[in-house]
Hints:
Layout: E1 6-12, E2 17-26, E3 29-39, H1 46-64, E4 68-72, H2 80-99, E5 104-107, H3 109-117, H4 124-134, H5 144-164, H6 175-179
Parallel strand pairs: 1-4, 4-5
Antiparallel strand pairs: 1-2, 2-3
Helix pairs in contact: 1-2, 3-5, 4-5
Amino acid sequence: MQTNILRVIGIDPGYERIGISVVEKKHTGEVLLFSECVITNRKDTHHDRLNTLGIATAKAIRTYKPTRFAIEKLYFNTNQKTALQVAEARGVLLYIAAQQNLEVFEYSPLQVKTATTGYGRADKKQMMAMVSRLISIDKKIQYDDEYDAIAIALTCIASERLAISSRYPHTRASPLAKRVGFDTNRKSKKNPGGLNGLQD
Length: 200
């Protein structure tokens, strides 16, 4: 069994639906092994919906055997009921990671946006466009949760690369954004988003 594989399961946590991805770092770049959006049935009981999310996550772990578990940190919004439901779902997913002896890496939305686009205020369209440039996706994705899960996995890989590489000692921008030629200079007035060629 290979022990030097960097294979990350990325999770975009939620309650009604979650995004799951599995991305592997190869010598030729990152490869998307799997991604899906898991949607819970609103007619199911609360614990059954949590169980649906847990089963799907555990299945992906058993099938693809990732070496890292990356998940987005919970962002509390004004809807306390929704925030509580997502927190409970996130707890189930973290429990499964622990059961599978996976080291957990947590990233804020700001960290994910910065890693993938070089800009912490990138919007959804910019994020999705950038993810599609960073990694080959050979299927149609309907929900942005799936794109977010891929971005979270890519962020984990980028963080690992930064930890072992000193190629970018003078910038906080991720090599992911640098690699595809993104402008990470936020001073540009003509292109305040700093995302070359991307439009809302």
